[in-house]
């Protein structure tokens, strides 16, 4: 078993051609196999060593009545529901049409995971179409030529993570008390998280921090029983361990490394391992909780991990534990906030929550902060709103003019979420100074209320 891919898009973009290429012509022509629905063709696809199921939504162009729009929509919606991933095709020679926008909308509303394909892009034919495709806000477009077989290696590279993820999903279909020991994700160039939907999967949280910060205590409190992280267990030493639970109505999957530290024998070794292991847990997470001990907050090790989480593009929540031990709460809080701003400026606006893992106080606030951070991390802003904002920003502070020629910002679009990523089309992107980029990043953060998540901006030129 593997994943299911639906090829969607308006008529004539090349869906059938691609379907045929993926399943092999002979199979594809068999339209009336038992079990194959009338409008949705299904086939076993093969792309190099990748096997998956492919659903084709083509064949509607022959329908000429006025219900075409409605039928297309229903068919696409059904395909999206059946599939794990959608390959949304547009015609690179034509560019983005209003009809494409309708499909993009359906996919967004359905919260589908989308790979955007720009077809008919053999040679340089799809160059401008591929650039335009960014404006759909569905991530980086892949150039393809279904007819000539070009771009199949890129498609392979993008689809490969889904195979691993599917295996992971199977593993997750186990009872809740089970401990998941994830395999290391490969170093794919494509971030599988970029295509991950939010609705169905548990929110992935890593709890990291120095030994004795209280990670095990916290996680046990969250999952509600001492079922996992107390005793050492053979075989799990080096791995990030995860446990799934329902936390105040939110399905979560929590990664922790406490099990291994419990059995480490030498102190120095213990410190070293916990850092490496914490870093590893970050890679599995969507939200990283940096757990600090109120008596020794913001140690070098904590700072390193928090910085790593930001670099990896994760949402960060800082939790200060053992708050029950603190007498001067007011003063301490002010001091912690000051340290946070000074020592971790890259996490500007990230929430800082005080908790007591032991008594359970503050855990509701921690929960809310995590859910909010996750929402912000998933946030999408429309191109229209972005450009209104960009206009105001450039008016307030025009971009610099290196060598006497002002850099022109043409337009901006969000190309990804998790974390939010933006492309600004402009003249001379290479000369854009870091300071102006920072001005835009901070402005975005404030105006669109995206505190505490990494924000990426890329500058591209139109030509
Ligand atoms: P569908 O309606 O989306 O299934 O589109 P089809 O697969 O029927 O293709 C529509 C037309 O585009 C056909 O004439 C194909 O030969 C042509 N076509 C499909 N893929 C490509 C391609 O990669 N390059 C070019 N130039 N034409 C293509
Ligand atoms: P870990 O190494 O990060 O997993 O930390 P543990 O969960 O094993 O906790 C280390 C020690 O701190 C234990 O003795 C806990 O009882 C204690 N501890 C954890 N959370 C709290 C807390 O909120 N308040 C107090 N006073 N002690 C705590």
TrEMBL record:
<comment type="similarity">
    <text>Belongs to the TRAFAC class TrmE-Era-EngA-EngB-Septin-like GTPase superfamily. EngA (Der) GTPase family.</text>
</comment>
<dbReference type="InterPro" id="IPR006073">
    <property type="entry name" value="GTP-bd"/>
</dbReference>
<comment type="subunit">
    <text>Associates with the 50S ribosomal subunit.</text>
</comment>
<keyword id="KW-0547">Nucleotide-binding</keyword>
<feature type="binding site">
    <location>
        <begin position="9"/>
        <end position="16"/>
    </location>
    <ligand>
        <name>GTP 1</name>
    </ligand>
</feature>
<feature type="binding site">
    <location>
        <begin position="56"/>
        <end position="60"/>
    </location>
    <ligand>
        <name>GTP 1</name>
    </ligand>
</feature>
<dbReference type="InterPro" id="IPR005225">
    <property type="entry name" value="Small_GTP-bd"/>
</dbReference>
<keyword id="KW-0690">Ribosome biogenesis</keyword>
<feature type="binding site">
    <location>
        <begin position="119"/>
        <end position="122"/>
    </location>
    <ligand>
        <name>GTP 1</name>
    </ligand>
</feature>
<dbReference type="Pfam" id="PF01926">
    <property type="entry name" value="MMR_HSR1"/>
</dbReference>
<keyword id="KW-0342">GTP-binding</keyword>
<dbReference type="InterPro" id="IPR031166">
    <property type="entry name" value="G_ENGA"/>
</dbReference>
<dbReference type="Pfam" id="PF14714">
    <property type="entry name" value="KH_dom-like"/>
</dbReference>
<feature type="binding site">
    <location>
        <begin position="256"/>
        <end position="260"/>
    </location>
    <ligand>
        <name>GTP 2</name>
    </ligand>
</feature>
<keyword id="KW-0378">Hydrolase</keyword>
<feature type="domain" description="EngA-type G">
    <location>
        <begin position="203"/>
        <end position="378"/>
    </location>
</feature>
<protein>
    <recommendedName>
        <fullName>GTPase Der</fullName>
    </recommendedName>
</protein>
<keyword id="KW-0677">Repeat</keyword>
<dbReference type="InterPro" id="IPR032859">
    <property type="entry name" value="KH_dom-like"/>
</dbReference>
<feature type="binding site">
    <location>
        <begin position="321"/>
        <end position="324"/>
    </location>
    <ligand>
        <name>GTP 2</name>
    </ligand>
</feature>
<dbReference type="GO" id="GO:0016787">
    <property type="term" value="F:hydrolase activity"/>
</dbReference>
<comment type="function">
    <text>GTPase that plays an essential role in the late steps of ribosome biogenesis.</text>
</comment>
<dbReference type="InterPro" id="IPR015946">
    <property type="entry name" value="KH_dom-like_a/b"/>
</dbReference>
<feature type="binding site">
    <location>
        <begin position="209"/>
        <end position="216"/>
    </location>
    <ligand>
        <name>GTP 2</name>
    </ligand>
</feature>
<dbReference type="InterPro" id="IPR016484">
    <property type="entry name" value="GTPase_Der"/>
</dbReference>
<dbReference type="InterPro" id="IPR027417">
    <property type="entry name" value="P-loop_NTPase"/>
</dbReference>
<feature type="domain" description="EngA-type G">
    <location>
        <begin position="3"/>
        <end position="167"/>
    </location>
</feature>
């Amino acid at each position: 078993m593997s994943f299911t891919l639906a090829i969607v898009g308006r008529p004539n973009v090349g869906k059938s051609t691609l379907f045929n290429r993926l399943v092999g012509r002979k199979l594809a022509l068999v339209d009336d196999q038992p079990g194959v629905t009338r409008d949705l063709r299904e086939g076993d696809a093969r792309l190099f060593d990748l096997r998956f199921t492919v659903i084709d939504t083509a064949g509607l162009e022959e329908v000429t009545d006025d219900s075409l729009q409605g039928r297309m929509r229903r068919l696409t919606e059904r395909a999206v529901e059946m599939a794990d991933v959608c390959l949304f095709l547009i015609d690179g020679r034509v560019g983005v049409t209003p009809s494409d926008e309708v499909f993009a909308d359906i996919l967004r509303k359905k919260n589908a995971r989308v790979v955007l394909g720009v077809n008919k892009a053999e040679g340089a034919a799809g160059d401008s179409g591929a650039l335009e495709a960014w404006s759909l806000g569905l991530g980086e477009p892949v150039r393809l030529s279904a007819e000539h077989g070009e771009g199949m290696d890129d498609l392979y590279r993008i689809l490969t993570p889904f195979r691993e993820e599917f295996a992971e999903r199977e593993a997750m279909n186990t009872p809740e008390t089970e401990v998941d020991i994830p395999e290391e994700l490969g170093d794919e160039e494509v971030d599988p998280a970029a295509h991950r939907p939010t609705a169905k999967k548990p929110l992935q949280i890593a709890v990291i921090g120095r030994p004795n910060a209280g990670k095990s205590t916290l996680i046990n409190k969250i999952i509600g029983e001492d079922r996992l992280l107390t005793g050492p267990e053979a075989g799990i030493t080096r791995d990030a361990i995860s446990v799934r639970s329902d936390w105040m109505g939110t399905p979560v999957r929590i990664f922790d490394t406490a099990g291994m530290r419990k059995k480490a024998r030498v102190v120095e070794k213990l410190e070293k391992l916990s850092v490496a292991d914490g870093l590893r847990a970050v890679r599995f997470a969507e939200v990283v909780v940096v757990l600090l001990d109120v008596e020794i907050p913001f140690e070098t090790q904590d700072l390193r991990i928090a910085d790593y989480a930001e670099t990896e593009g994760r949402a960060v929540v800082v939790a200060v534990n053992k708050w029950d031990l603190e007498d001067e709460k007011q003063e301490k809080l002010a001091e912690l906030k000051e340290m946070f701003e000074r020592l971790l400026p890259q996490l500007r606006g990230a929430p800082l929550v005080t908790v007591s893992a032991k008594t359970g106080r503050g855990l509701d606030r921690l929960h809310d902060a995590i859910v909010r951070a996750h929402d912000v991390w998933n946030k999408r802003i429309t191109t229209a709103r972005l450009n209104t904002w960009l206009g105001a920003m450039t008016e307030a502070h025009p971009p610099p003019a290196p060598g006497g020629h002002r850099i022109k910002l043409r337009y901006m679009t969000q190309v990804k979420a998790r974390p939010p990523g933006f492309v600004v089309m402009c003249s001379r992107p290479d000369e854009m100074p870091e300071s102006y980029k920072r001005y835009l990043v901070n402005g975005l953060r404030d105006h669109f209320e995206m505190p505490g998540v990494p924000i990426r901006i890329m500058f591209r030129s139109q030509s």
